[in-house]
Design a protein that fits this description.
Layout: E1 4-5, H1 11-17, E2 20-26, H2 31-46, E3 51-56, H3 61-66, E4 74-79, E5 82-88, H4 93-105, H5 108-118
């Protein structure tokens, strides 16, 4: 599977309807974004069970503002509709693989239950 362009109209439903969604916030003029793009595309091809979304921050300025994007590229990971990872910067392939492995292994229900107990 390749990456999917996400917009303000499709973002929430994509995050809610899929187990794991990774989102790359990027722009055409961004050099690090262009360097990260092929790494992200390869990961998308290697993990067809995960949705790999891309948000063009120039075309989707309101969505980028809502997500509080201050630096691009920024990678976000959602599991079962919950934000579980967010980090600016172009990741090398090995680091992206670590993020994917960690998000896949994360028991988000247990993490939410533990966080609720701490409150």
């Amino acid at each position: 599977m390749t990456t999917t362009a996400l917009t303000s109209q499709t973002f929430a439903q994509t995050v809610d309807d899929n187990e794991i969604v990774l989102v790359d916030f990027w722009a055409d003029w961004c050099g690090p974004c262009r360097m990260f793009a092929p790494v992200y595309e390869r990961a998308a091809e290697q993990h067809p069970e995960i949705v790999f979304g891309k948000v063009d921050t120039e075309a989707e300025q309101e969505l980028a503002a809502w997500a509080q994007i201050t630096s691009i590229p920024t990678l976000m990971a959602f599991k079962k509709g919950h934000l579980v990872f967010a980090q600016p910067g172009a990741l090398p392939a090995a680091a992206l693989d670590q993020v994917i492995d960690a998000v896949t292994a994360l028991d988000v229900d247990a993490a939410l239950a533990a966080a609720k107990k701490e409150q």
